[in-house]
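pasting for ref. prot 1 ->
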Amino acid sequence: MTTLPPGITEAQTLTADVEVGCDVAIVGSGPGGAVVAATLARAGLSVVVLEEGGAFTKARFRGREDEAYPLLYQDGGQRVTKDLGITLLQGKAMGGGSVVNWTTCFRTPDHVIDHWRTRHAVGGFDGAALAPHFAAMEQRLSIAPVPLELLNRNNRALYDGCKKLGWAVEPTQRNVLGCAYSGHCGHGCPIDAKQSMLVTLLPDAMQAGAAVVTRCRVQRVVFEAGRVTAVIGLAIDASGTQSTGVTVTVKPRFVVIAGGAINSPALLLRSAAPDPHGVLGRRTFLHPVTGVVGVFDDRIEGWRGAPQSAASHQFAQRGDEVGFFLEVAPIHPMLMATAMPGIGTTHRDTMARVAHFAAFLALTIDGFHDDVPGGRVTLSKSGAPVLAYPIAERQWRAFRDGAKALAKVAFAAGAKEALTGHDPPTSMRSDADLAAVDAAHWEVARVALFSAHQMGGCGMSDDAKSGVVRSEDLRHHQIDNLHVVDGSVFPTSLGVNPQLSIYGLAHLMAERLVARWKTA
């Protein structure tokens, strides 16, 4: 058994199997894993982080979609639900999803945490306990509101439209420092302005002695007598697809799984982790998204500027109906080409107008109604994750209501036309045409649906019959030295972008783990 030097080891360069010992093995280097790694390493614990994605620097981030999706996204940006109905955008790189997200930061709403306490037996913390940890991460990551005058035309259309309608709307907070507003956040920041884990907490961790192994796909964890005894990973080649045949084995005292929703439950399923109540992989949430394109006479050029700098939560809480919140997507050619319906000349003619498009999103809030329990992660024959996500009628109603709200915003902001994501799209010219939304085909594969926010699958609950981990320290109910610290532990979706929620929760839990493990 050996030790790894602090810093980055790229597993594709290893020529022989490696066996490593350490205090803590962390699977995943995104918002959960990086925060935990930095906190534990600074406390003097020996830390090894295993990351499936590659180690990239700003020099590799050239704003090219054809490079970014294969390099930086799960399944090359083509991850989908089992029925192909929802496209799942999920990061895969050193730094995880923080490398490619659109920098939007919200604290977890208090009413969400209250719901977890009353409905999901989450008693390990409350909003007051999380507040100083949110503040600490906001300071470290330079999280601050976007100045109103810096909203790009794409986001300004959402902001102005909501204001004219009398709806709540605000500039978002972003984790950036020295941002040049290039608009390429989703492709990796070319100037290191985005304060992702790649340039903040992971360097903090490595400076404190942590080792990070990239291009290492963790296949399973090994259990003996209710404890993890080993973590087994395979080295992956530089393409990020094929195993090199080299095995990386880590034998730690403690393990933190932080692979994100979908990947974390999949790893536990591959490992045959104890699941006596059948909850592992269930209640996986997506904030499923429908969109409306506003077509304007003037040029919007939504590929420029901060990609997501305004949001409205006017409809986030709707009682018996599924809530939704309104945001904006950047308009890059490949992203828009895959999102817009049609083929041949129809698609070409649509894309010819792309400079005049504003892309409005309605993100639906799943997990708060008994008939909207989210999806379930299982495994394919190869061991890869498969997400089945049935859409309830209550959600279809939210999609329709969300599309109508977006069309109203578009017209209030001055759009001459609004197009839904159907194939063919439903076209509206004014509020008088909104009834056409109800008449459209709201069915799987008849309308484009997306998710960039994956949550759940290893839900926390102090009731072992309802959750995979307990809420006090996110320790697995049946495995003494295994913890899950990422977005998979959320027992519902959040109703806000999840980035800051993961940072704050990870910071709180990491400090609790330090207090226990330093004396263990």
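and prot 2 ->
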Amino acid sequence: MKKKFNVILYLSFLVIYLEVLTKIFVTKSFSSIFLTLIFSIPFILILYLLTNIFKRKGNVIITYLLTIILIIYYCFQFFFHRLFSIVFSFNTIGLASNALDFTNIIFDVVLKNIWVVLLYLLPLILLIIFHKRINFERTSLKWIIISFILVLVIWITSLFCLFIGKNETYSAYNLYYNINSEMKTVEKFGLYTYTRLDIKRVLFGFEEKLTTTEEPDIPNDPDEEEEEKPIEVTYNELTIDFDTLIQNESNETIKNMLEYFKSSEPTNKNEYTGMFKGKNLIFLLAEGFNMIAVDRELTPTLYQLTHEGFVFNNFYSPVFLSTTGGEFQATTGLIPTQEVLSNWKRYKPTISYALGNAFTPLGYTANGYHNWTYTYYSRQKTMETLGFNSYMGCGNGMEDLINCSWLPSDVDMINATLPLYKDNTPFVTYYVTVSGHAPYAYNSTGNSIALKNIDLVRDLPYSNNVKAYLATQIELDRALESLIKGLDEAGILEDTVIALVGDHYPYTLTIDEVNEISDYERDEIVEVNRSNFILWNSEMDTIEVDKVGSQIDVLPTLLNLFGVEYDSRLIVGKDILSDTPGLAIFSNRSWVSDYGTYKNGKFTLKEGVTLDNIDEYVTSMNNIVSNRFTLSANIIKYNMYDYILN
């Protein structure tokens, strides 16, 4: 008889194999493999104990069930990350379900990655083949006691490992006790430990801590020549008695935030302050829009608007949980973690500087429109927090104006709604478009907009998915063309500013498909998010801006341009036109500054740029990035705008 091996060997292979796949396909980093392994050992021993509860037959069933559950969970996390560039948090229950309603999108992504699914299924396949070679007999009480002791000893040992490099921003210690970063935690500890921490934090709460109560100093844009600042410099700040607030506050988290705001340097008012004062604003959050869709012949209006007005040459639209994350960034100037988005929708906090709230006190009428279900992503709640009490989508009025069957046309929405507000000047109008939505395929059930515009892309030298994507962006281009024409006919074009950002890059396209139409080779962590920020008025000259910026900088840039009085210390995004150093922050806490790019734990200096102390600079930037995540979370959690400003 062939010798059988203990089930613990199989369970060890199962867990380690799944964690290695996570390293390969999700974090794309093996830098902390030791910590991942040592923190996985107690889990393996717990699984071993679970497979020793019954006699052989029962233990076989338990082993199969555990294998299937783990494979499904790890596979689910892979696809969640593939879609949203982050791993799933239990904070997201009830939030991400909307994004997962599109079963055809999910099916398309699964089909493209079927070989990855097969890799995840390997342990189950091996279990089926070799289960007769595994000893499933119940172990002795002695070995069960030894296993319990080993779990305790290894767990305590693993906790001692947390103190290695404790003072680094994203050290194992900080991620375990102080910082709630999904991707960094998975990268450092593996998916099992992340999941355990995530469940614990959701159930019992978690206070993320600032790395310091003072804003670290960072160098200014290296491409700008040193100029003597005028003696009189004014700032975008309000008179806030932080000292009294700090003195009267007993909550340590709130007190630290107040101290941080107090120490932060506000952005300066500049030559563009008030440039658009009194003008109308039309802001579009464009589904799936990215600069790869801009073409002189194919999308001429997009081409015009991205090459005129303000031209931002280093702008990023980072993915944070699909459209709702892009929306939150652009309209609030804050970073949207899964906890933030969940609290935003659940508690409806005051967001004083949000797009509608900032303009209505100035006499603006604030209108919001969406050509899909009006309750999608709980917009019937969140639009109110943004200051758009007049909000129309499919289900509360839009269905009477356009055909709301999947997939609605952006052109139809623009044509139907412009007459509703064009005479009520000044206005701030917010559009959330949908015609650019995935899946990118030529069929009526998958994407009727792509099918509608197929003749315009049929002969292009790209793959079918890419051509379908471009076909959807043609609809956005035509909507903008119609909008400009309508504003001109109404005699208000010169008094209206058009702003547009994409909610995220078209993430159902593979990186190879994105690079088919990119004018440079992109990676799938940072550069895949590079895009355009359209900010255009028919009467202005073209102004090029090379400073790095991203979605969270859109709102403060608009506030400054429209002369809105606000305190820039209370928004984590910064006016791109100010002299504050540029910074783009991504969901996995990678970042791009005017000096270079930080990703996968490594900093790459921008070509032609010098920096005296790179290590010190990277540490300062990591602290700033970490603090901006923390500030964003706690501004929403503690309703800080209401606390400070009202």
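The chain has a mean pLDDT of 90.
The two ends are 79 Å apart (CA to CA).
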